[in-house]
C-alpha cells in the first residue's frame, strides 16, 4: 500500500467518524420543530470532503500524539462543519448565488423553502458555538474552549468568512486586482482552514511557537486549496467533482487562472504547498506525518 | 419625582450607555467590508427599548450591588442586543415576514439588498459570541463566560429563538391551540429574556438558588411581555408604538386576545407580573428594586 492510498484511507475513515459524531450533535431530547431539525440535518449529512473537521482532529493529534487529544477535538470538528454547512446553505439562497444543486443534491431552500433554509443556517451557526462548549466534557479547559469560541467568532464572522462572502458579492461586477481576489479567498476559504488547524492545535496543548508555525502552515494551505479549486473549476472532471465545471466562467467570476494564467496558477499551488510543509517542519510536532500527507493530497486532488 | 419616572430615567440612561457600547462593539482596526459594517451598524443603531441588554446589566447589579458587576456585564449586554438585532433583520426578509419598515425606518434589506441583509444578520449573530468572550477582560472568569456562551447558543438557537421562529412560520396557517401559541412565544420571545436575566446573574456571581429564582422571574416576565405585545398590537397607539397596529389581525396571526379574549389577556399579564415579583422575593438579592420596577414598568407600558 503506498503513502497516498493510506492517506485516502485515513481521510475516508476520519470523515465517517465525523459523520457519526454529527448525527448526535443536536441532543435528541431537545425540543426542535421537526422540519427545522430535518432541514439542518439534510445539509449536515449531505457529504463533502469534511476537510475542515479532519484538519481539527489531525492538528490535535499532531501536537499531542495520543487518542485523548483526537477524541477531545471532536466537538470542535463538529462545530466547524456546522459553520461550513450553514455558509453553504445561505450562499445557495436565491438572493445570493441562487444554486439549485449542491453535491448532486437539491439545495436546502429547494427542499424546505427559503424561510426554513435561512433558519436552518441560523440554527447551525448558533449551534456551532454550543458544540465548542462541549469540548470541556472531554477534558479541554474552560480557558482553551473560550479561546476557541473567540477564534471561531473572529474567523467565521464579519472580519472573516462572512466578510469574505460580502466582499465577493460586492465585487462581483468588478474584481480586477489580485489584491481584491486574495482578500476574498483569504476570508471566504482560508479563514475556516486557519480556524481548524489553530483550534486543533489548542486542544492538543500547542506552545506559542507551535501555534505560530501551524498558523503559517494553515495560511499557505488555505490559499493553495482555493487556487486548486479555481483550477479544477476550469479543467476538472464533472463526475469526480460532483458539480458542473466552468461555473466561474459562466458567472464571470475572477479566478487565479483568469488573472495569472493556468500554468502560473499550477506553479503557485506547488509553491504554496512547499511553503506550507516548510512551516510544518518548524513546528516541532509529535506526529506531523498526517498533516504533511494532507498537504500533498490536496495539491494532487482531482475533486 | 415618582417611582415610575425614576424607572423611565434609569431605562433611558441605561439604553444610552448600551448604545454607546455598541458603537465600539466591532474593533475599528478589524478589516470588514465597508458596506457590511454599515449594514450591521444601521440595524444595531436603529433604536428600540434595549430591554434585553438592560436586563443583563440590572440582573448583574441586583445580585452583586457594585459598579464592577454592572460594568462587567456590558459585553454580554451588547451580545444579546446583537442577537436580537440579527433576528429582526432575518425576520424582516421577503422570504420571512417581508416587512419594509421597522421602528419607522426602512428594514435592512430595503436599504442594503437581500444578500447583504442576510450577511449582516450572520455577522451580528457570529459577533455576539465574540462579545461574550470579551467579558473576561472585565474580570469575568473563563468558566462563567463559557457557561454564558452555552446558554446563549441554547436559548438563541434551534431549541430556542430560532426554533420559535420556525414554529411560527410552520404554524402560520394553523396555530389553533394555546399550547402551540405558548411554544412559539416561549421560544421567540421569552428565551432571550431568560438568557439576559440568567447571564446577568452569572456575571454577578449568583448562587444556584438565586439563579433558579431569577429564572422563574424571567420566565413569567417573558410571557407577560409577549401577551402585552399582543394586546398593544390590537389597542395600542401607532405613534407611540412606532409601528402599525392590527398587523397580527391582518396577517391572521393567532394571539392571546384572539384565543382567550382581551379581558382575560389583561388579567393574565397582571397575574404573570405578580408571579414574577414573587419569584424575585425568593431570590434574596442585594439590590432587587430595579428588577421590580422593570416588571411594573413593562405591565403598564403603552409601547
What do you see in this structure?
2 copies of one chain form a homodimer. Chain A contains 16 helices and 2 strands. Chain A has a two-stranded antiparallel sheet. Chain A has 303 residues and is mainly alpha-helical. In chain A, 73% of the residues lie in helices and 1% in strands. Chain A has a single domain (3-300), classed as Farnesyl Diphosphate Synthase. Chain A has helices at residues 3-23, 34-44, 51-63, 67-72, 74-92, 108-112, 114-133, 142-156, 161-171, 178-203, 208-235, 238-241, 247-250, 256-260, 262-282, 289-300; strands spanning 101-102, 105-106. Chains A, B: Its cofactor is Mg(2+).
Largest sheet of chain A: 2 strands, antiparallel
Relative strand content of chain A? under 5%
What's the rounded overall pLDDT mean of chain A? 92
H and E string of chain A: HHHHHEEHHHHHHHHHHH
Low-confidence stretches of chain A: none
Helix proportion range of chain A: over 70%
Largest interface, with Cβ-Cβ < 8 Å?
Answer: A-B, 53 and 53 residues
Globular, elongated, flat, extended or rod-shaped: what is the shape of chain A? Answer: globular
Strand order of the biggest β-sheet of chain A = 1-2
Terminal CA distance of chain A: 22 Å
Q: What are the key terms here?
A:
two-stranded antiparallel sheet; 2 strands; Isoprenoid_synthase_dom_sf (chains A, B); transferase (chains A, B); 73% helix; 1% strand; mainly alpha; 303 residues; Farnesyl Diphosphate Synthase; metal ion binding (chains A, B); homodimer; EC 2.5.1.10 (chains A, B)
Amino acid at each position: 500500500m503506498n503513502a497516498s492510498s493510506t492517506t485516502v484511507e485515513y481521510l475516508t475513515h476520519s470523515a465517517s467518524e465525523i459523520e457519526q459524531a454529527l448525527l448526535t450533535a443536536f441532543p435528541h431530547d431537545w425540543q426542535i420543530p421537526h422540519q427545522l431539525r430535518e432541514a439542518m440535518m439534510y445539509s449536515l449529512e449531505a457529504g463533502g470532503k469534511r476537510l475542515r473537521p479532519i484538519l481539527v482532529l489531525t492538528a490535535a493529534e499532531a501536537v499531542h500524539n495520543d487518542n485523548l487529544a483526537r477524541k477531545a477535538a471532536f466537538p470542535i470538528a463538529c462545530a466547524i462543519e456546522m459553520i461550513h454547512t450553514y455558509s453553504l446553505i445561505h450562499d445557495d439562497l436565491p438572493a445570493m448565488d441562487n444554486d439549485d444543486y449542491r453535491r448532486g443534491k437539491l439545495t436546502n431552500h429547494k427542499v424546505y423553502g427559503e424561510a426554513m433554509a435561512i433558519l436552518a443556517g441560523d440554527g447551525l451557526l448558533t449551534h456551532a458555538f454550543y458544540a465548542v462548549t462541549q469540548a470541556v466534557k472531554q477534558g479541554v479547559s474552560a480557558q482553551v474552549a473560550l479561546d476557541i469560541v473567540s477564534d471561531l467568532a473572529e474567523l467565521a464572522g464579519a472580519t472573516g468568512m462572512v466578510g469574505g462572502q460580502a466582499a465577493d458579492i460586492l465585487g462581483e461586477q468588478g474584481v480586477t486586482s489580485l489584491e481584491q481576489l486574495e482578500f476574498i479567498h483569504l476570508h471566504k476559504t482560508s479563514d475556516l482552514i486557519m480556524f481548524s488547524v489553530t483550534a486543533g492545535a489548542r486542544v492538543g496543548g500547542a506552545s506559542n511557537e507551535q501555534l505560530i508555525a501551524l498558523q503559517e502552515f494553515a495560511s499557505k494551505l488555505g490559499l493553495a486549496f482555493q487556487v486548486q479549486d479555481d483550477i479544477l473549476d476550469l479543467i476538472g472532471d464533472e463526475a469526480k467533482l460532483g458539480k458542473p465545471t466552468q461555473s466561474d466562467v459562466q458567472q464571470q467570476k475572477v479566478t487565479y487562472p483568469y488573472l495569472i494564467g493556468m500554468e502560473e496558477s499550477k506553479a503557485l499551488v506547488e509553491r504554496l504547498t512547499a511553503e506550507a510543509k516548510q512551516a510544518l517542519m518548524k513546528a516541532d510536532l509529535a506526529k506531523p506525518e498526517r498533516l504533511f500527507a494532507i498537504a500533498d493530497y490536496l495539491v494532487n486532488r482531482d475533486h
